[in-house]
Design brief:
With about 170 residues, this protein is mostly beta strands. Helices cover about 0% and strands about 65% of the residues.
């Protein structure tokens, strides 16, 4: 369990300056950020299988300490695009060089510039195989991301991709 508390001067935010027609990045805010992070991992063996279960929870309050006009954020209001609650898990089971993993992540609702963005849960699945070749370990992953084809947004009016497939290769040199 980790806790934190920070007072941050000159928080960087995107905004429109007076008499301008475009967004630019500026140091324009004072922010109080505090919260906790809880992470837990369980390892186990079930016959020839090795398993691992991880889960985490984050509580994040990041509050503006000065009223802003652009973007419009009141004093004490949660920062734009910063969820108060987020959580996730992953479960991996492996037999020798082969395995599978499923993971899920919850992201709480957030305030956007023009509208609030609802919470969402994403679930991913992957299978993998590890090959050893001379002094190199090669891990090949096949991933199904957003397996439930959930429609979600991280920033308003910008939909994120639905279900997608990927094939990844990771080299570890010994």
């Amino acid at each position: 369990l980790n806790t934190y508390h920070r007072m941050i001067d000159n928080w960087i935010l995107w905004g429109i300056e007076e008499n301008a027609f475009f967004y630019s990045v500026r140091n324009l805010s004072k922010v109080r950020s505090y919260g906790l992070e809880w992470i837990h991992q369980i390892n186990y063996q079930w016959g020839p299988f090795l398993g691992q279960f991880n889960y985490h929870y984050n509580y994040t309050k990041s509050q503006n300490q000065i009223k802003l006009i652009s973007p419009n954020i009141d004093e004490g209001e949660q920062l734009l695009y910063v969820p108060i609650h987020s959580a996730g898990y992953s479960w991996t089971i492996q037999n020798r060089n082969r395995g599978l993993r499923i993971n899920g992540n919850y992201t709480g609702s957030v305030n956007g510039i023009n509208e609030d963005i609802p919470s969402y849960i994403l679930t991913n699945f992957s299978i993998f195989n590890v090959f050893d070749y001379q002094k190199t370990s090669i891990k090949i992953f096949f991933n199904i991301n957003n397996i439930t084809n959930r429609q979600y947004r991280v920033i308003e009016r910008r939909p994120m991709p639905g279900r997608s497939l990927s094939l990844n290769v990771q080299f570890n040199f010994k």
